[in-house]
Amino acid sequence: MSTRTRAATRRLTILNSEPLSVAIIGTIGMDSIHVVERMPENGESLNAISMRRLPGGKGANTAIAVCRASRHKPIPGDDADQEGEEVAGETRQLSPGEIGSNENNIEINIYMNGSVGNDKIGRILKANLVKHDIDVSGVQVCNDDHSTTCNVFVDQHTGQSRNLGYPGATPYWRPSEKDSVNCLAAGKRPDLVVVNLGISRQVAENIIKVSHRKGVDTILNASPAMFLLTTTYRSVTHLLLNESEAATMSGNISEEFSGPSLWERAAKYFIDLGVKYVVIILSKNEGAYYATQEGTTGQIEPEKLESETKDTTGARSTFVGTYVVECLRAKRFGEWDIEKAIRRAYLFSTRAVTELGAQESIPWADEIDS
């Protein structure tokens, strides 16, 4: 079959197929981003160079990354460029751009699950998700606490950030049905469930186990690190975590396990517990280390790009969201390639650090593929 014929077949498959769907569970919050000359020492007071408030939260960031990694940027002047509007307590849905003509592009329905406070911030956060064509029927409004917030301190020279968050409404979220995966996607069975830690540990573990039992693949974005029951891991299809999280959650916290020895030992620990694919996102621009149940391992080094790092806050969520798109693309076309998925995820996340803000910095598909 020629390349042109394969491309035509892919386009026909897309046209004749129902959209794929992903249910994402995690934090929805507002970031206060302070750009600083340097981080203050203990007991020291410094003034920030600038400050902006922008939507964030690992769950919401991931959802928006899925949207942008699978769609073209809206044309200037479209409704999608406007702020999401709240009308009579509801948000008006706006289109975020076309799927595009590339035969690799797929249509994805995105369902966000989390909690916001009954406050102005919560309404802004929901509207921002709707603006990106994300279903918010699983976003609960909490009357017991404020919306989740996070103070982000960004070093203007390196772009590295330190975060101090207040969980607020997030821990109050519960699925509407305990033994259902359909309730995470507006009553429909999702093709993939993504769990970001930060919600209740027991709730996270139950969702992972129920999804697996119902035959739905899962991605666990293990941030922030927390100890899970070892029986949970057999229900995890893809485990994404960084070196620190890998060390903590596998119990390999001594210095002798730093570097490749940590990657290999930690990955083997999770594989032995039943995880199908483990991806450890490495520090210092070293790429990622992966391991699979089939026994394949490797290190993927990122493509070196000549760009200035301004803010690393959204890099992880952009990586996860792009990885999600690749997982769904593989479900559509039956061509799972973990190395390709990691490379593409890194390409998007590398671009995301060149702008300020966890969500505004996430690139659209055509900005990468053009």
Automatic annotation (TrEMBL):
GO molecular function terms noted in the UniProt entry: kinase activity
Gene Ontology BP terms: phosphate-containing compound metabolic process
SUPFAM superfamilies: Ribokinase-like
Key word Transferase present: yes
Keywords, comma-separated and alphabetical: Kinase, Transferase
Pfam families membership: PfkB
Amino acid composition bias (Acidic residues), ranges on this chain: 78-88
Name listed for the protein in its UniProt record: Carbohydrate kinase PfkB domain-containing protein
Species name: Dactylellina haptotyla (strain CBS 200.50) (Nematode-trapping fungus)
Higher taxonomy: Eukaryota, Fungi, Dikarya, Ascomycota, Pezizomycotina
